[in-house]
Amino acid sequence: MARRLTVGAELQRDGGAHVRIWAPACSSVELVVGGRAAIPMDRESDGHFSAFDEHARAGGRYWFRLDGERLRPDPASRWQPDGPHEPSAYVNPRAFHWTDHSREGLKPVGQVIYEMHVGTFTPEGTWAAAAEQLAELAEVGITIVEMMPVAEFPGRFGWGYDGVQLYAPAHAYGAPDDLRAFVDRAHAVGLGVILDVVYNHLGPDGNYLGEFSADYFTDKYSNDWGRSINFEGPAPVREYFIQNAGYWIEEFHLDGLRLDATQDLKDRSPRHVIADIVTAAREAGGPRAIYIVAENEPQDTTIARSPARGGYGVDALWNDDAHHTAMVALTGRREAYYRDYLGTPQELVSCARLGYLYQGQWYSWQAKRRGTPALDLSPHTFVAYLENHDQVANSAFGKRLHQLTSPGRYRAMAAWLLLGPATPLLFQGQEFASSKPFLYFADHTSELAEDVRRGRVEFLAQFPSLTDDRVVRALPSPGDVKTFESCVLDFAERHRHHEAYALHRDLLALRRDDEVLARAGTYRPEGAVLGPGAFLLRYVDQDRGDRLLIVNLDRDLEFAPVREPLLAPPFRARWRLVWSSESPAYGGQGAPPLRTDEAWTIPGGSAMFLVSELP
């Protein structure tokens, strides 16, 4: 039989379906199809069971009966129309008519990422509704949509990080072909799509893998989220996860992956499973360039080096250091894991130039060294952000960053993010200063829901201010549908908040169209501290002229004399101001004329971008 994956149900071109599953814990497995007699599955020598269903059709439902007793869905199901506890459905991945044959893939330089939670991105919470907004995202200047996890999860709503059937697109958002249509539409408007995948654990509700084999999990390693996956165990365990990476690329035309919490992918095999996942994804992409991002809390840069240099071949790493220092700079709050950041101009310059702030130094919050060397990595290797799903939600009420600081300082920091050399990421709604929070929500059974609620309170207790009884009593309940609904974006705010929308649109246009900024991620800018809250980044380009970004998060700063050499224009050239965060179009108060041949005055709470030109 022709198969694309080792396990799962695969419809054959000449009819019927070949069904295969790895279940060494079972003495017998039967394929149960509604209204027909069960089909005994043949046991193979390595613990696989297989059968052929000659009557199978797309949309038909099937179960596995384990040891003549328990009906269970397929762990490699391509669709769970009624949720993770119900029967699986046959899917024909070849039936969809793709129109994206000319797509070229994603290069690691020049990208702007947009993190999206499908369930709250639109009021409908579906791929079909989200697809209608893709052209607008492309117009704003986004190049990649990064979907939060969409593998099948229990309940009506959730973040997706408790997925339990990793091959089945979540039925809450639509059918598998709705996801394909979303990706096809994204490609039509010039967007790439990458998917956040969770290979470090499975959710607690609807996870039946252990009934097929206890070897899927191990207690050898601790794990922040649940039992660790046994990547050092039997080959079918690794195959289940490695093939999943290629599956999303091949069958849904995705352009890449974001690997969640890679520090909990514990593996001491001769070749780390992350390297195998990356290889599988790239092979599935064929000639198209596949873009792979990783989250790694300990900041292990091995992940982002090429295999030739002993690395795993990932393109980019999330940079929490950049977020944390920016957060402190804008709010002044240094509780919990913000303790080791001051938000100083030097920290902001160092993040822009060198990526991680912590590359092996002592880190008091964890009472150990943090990070590994990254000085050899290009700036585009680091994904920087002011908001993401975790950081917005890791607060009492999920407020957006623009609500926690002054408008001028926020606009200035947006310039640092979007005109800096790192790969920028915006969280959904950030581009128009969404007033909607992003909270933690998960729809579980009553007993598990109470555990989740208590766990959330315990997690937030690392912030002393969030142990206030008044705050604890007011915390939105993760299991309350109103918590979920409160996070749904309101696209009318694109118009009501037109100044914020114009700010992000113009910054992204400048990043895209300026011939120096367009390649800025390939080399480090120069940088200097100008004052208590002021700094500059300078892109040196002898062929196209230099570019200068000045950010002042403090009060007005006057330079007389101008004693910083990086403020001097190139030989025989002059600076021309081309952009200011204080433009009235963005809600600013205007900026005084900048006479660069005289003393410089840099307004407080502002940013400006200058281009060198010959007279």
Which helices and strands appear, and what pairs or packs with what?
Blueprint: E1 8-11, E2 17-22, E3 29-33, E4 39-40, E5 42-43, E6 48-53, E7 61-66, E8 70-72, E9 88-89, E10 113-116, H1 118-121, H2 127-131, H3 134-140, E11 144-147, E12 151-152, E13 165-169, H4 176-188, E14 192-197, H5 209-212, E15 217-218, E16 228-229, H6 235-252, E17 256-259, H7 273-285, E18 291-294, E19 316-318, H8 320-331, H9 345-354, E20 361-363, E21 368-370, E22 382-385, H10 389-393, H11 407-418, E23 423-427, H12 446-460, H13 469-474, H14 481-485, H15 493-496, H16 498-513, E24 526-531, E25 534-539, E26 547-552, E27 557-559, E28 574-580, E29 600-602, E30 606-613
Parallel strand pairs: 10-11, 10-23, 11-14, 14-17, 17-18, 18-19, 19-22, 22-23
Antiparallel strand pairs: 1-2, 2-6, 3-4, 3-7, 5-6, 7-8, 7-9, 12-13, 15-16, 20-21, 24-25, 25-26, 26-30, 27-29, 28-30
Describe this structure in words.
It is a single chain. The chain is an alpha/beta fold and 615 residues long. The protein has three domains: 8-89, Immunoglobulins (Immunoglobulin-like, Sandwich), CATH 2.60.40.10; 113-506, TIM Barrel; 525-613, Immunoglobulin-like (Sandwich). It is built from 16 helices and 30 strands. It has an eight-stranded parallel β-barrel, surrounded by four helices. Strands 3, 4, 7, 8 and 9 form a five-stranded antiparallel beta sheet that branches. The longest helix has 18 residues, at 235-252. The chain is elongated and about 90 Å long. The protein starts with 7 loop residues before the first strand and ends with a strand.
